[in-house]
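Interim report to the steering committee. The following record documents the input for 2381_t:CDS:1 (177 residues).
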Amino acid sequence: MKNESESRKRELKSRYENKNSCFDEDVVNKVNEFIRGCESNEIKFLFIHLTDCDEHGHNYGYGTKQYLKQIQSLDKQIGIIMRTIKEKGWIEDSLVIMTTDHGGVNKIKDGTTIGVQGGNSEDKINVFLSVCGPGILAASKIEGDLSNLVCALIALSALGIEVLKYFDIKLPQISLA
Ligand SMILES: [Zn+2]
C-alpha cells in the first residue's frame, strides 16, 4: 500500500512533466486579480480552466478520498471567483457555465489506484453541467442527453452571437427539479 507522501510525489511529478499545468489556487488568484482590474465592459467572455480535480482523478482514482477532498477544494475556489464577481456588482449580469471534459474509472497499476479516461462506458462519458445566471431558474433541471458542445451554444446565445447553421446542436430543455 502506497502512503500519502508517495501519492503527493506522484502528483507533483505529473505536474512537473506537464509544464503547462498549475494549481487551481494560483489560477484563481490570477483570475481574481484580473477581474478586479477590469471595467465591466472589458469582459465579454472569460474561460477558466481548473485542473486539480482532473489531476486527482487521474492520480488517485475517481471517487477516492483525495478526489472528493479536491472537489471540496474546487467548490471553495469557485466560491472565491463568484464572490469577486459579486463584489464587482456583476453577478446579475454574469452567466456561469461549469462542466468537465471527461469522467473516468479506476484501475490498479503497480499496486496503486489510478483513474483512467477514454472509451465509451457510462462512467467515462457522463459528466456534470451546471449553469447559473440571468434567465436560469434556481433548481431547474436540464432534460435529456447532451453533448458538451452545448456549452458553446449556451455561451454564443448568451453573447447574442449568431449560431452558424452547420452547428447542429439545440439548446437544452429545462424543467423545474
Ligand atoms: Zn483528464
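Residues 137-177 form one domain. The committee is asked to note this result when reviewing the revised timeline.
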